[in-house]
Amino acid sequence: MASDTSGRSETFDIGGELTVDRLGFGAMRITGEDIIGTPGDEDEAKEVLRRAVDLGVDFVDTADSYGPGVSERLIGEALGDPDDAVVASKAGLLRNREGDWLPHGDPDFLKNQVLCSLDRLGTDEIDLYQYHRPDPDTDFEESVHAFAEMKDAGQIAHVGLSNVTVEQLETAMEIVDVATVQNRYNVGHRDDEDVLRACEENDVGFIPWGPMYAVEEGESAETLAEVAARRDATPQQVALAWLLDHSDVTLPIPGTSSVDHLESNVAAADLSLTDEDRTALDAVDAQ
Question: How does pLDDT run across 1-14, given as a tens digit for each residue?
Fold first, then answer.
């Protein structure tokens, strides 16, 4: 890879046809505390969404479980059915008042959830709909078949997976075209490097959730801070720049409820890493 790169100029074709800039926006944080209920100021949350699109962010990721339903509704109200942005959502997790995330992959439930997502987002077809987490109590293939049926029915344009193994990805690809995989991944947490490599081999987008978790974790935090100091940047910006630099299929989706933080995150796409930066970051042991 070249010694100087700029993420903003790079794009990825989700499903081979939805071209997006590789730095997107994750809409989990525009809900209430513990991702339950409404935010303290819904107008401010909508302003963050609108500002993201104004800044050129054209990939927005959410889920029916964020709120639940709150994030999708706010996106629908703030952006409508945008022509200038790809909106992705997910189904397959239940929430409770304690804030637990409970896998629920029953096909009938998933097919009901897509109807709710369509209504809240204010669209006839969701650009990308992802299976949020495999359910140990439901046959994985049956859950994936439900997403294939949603696609056949014209309710979703593309199918994605989240929190899956290479084996599960391969199984799903035998059932339906898989456009993206969304797993936890950052400079300090690379347990799913094999999944990322499988995505590269199959031209599947890899959406690394938790891209900022590394900023305060062990060795990665120290190295990020050192690189940031050299580059007059923030550790968060460096963490995002590394993700963009590390693979051509990564689609980071940093989330925030603040316009200021949003603008800082978006600026990371223009942060070029040097060979020295890359060597230091690549050497961080996975936490």
Answer: 233 334 444 899 99
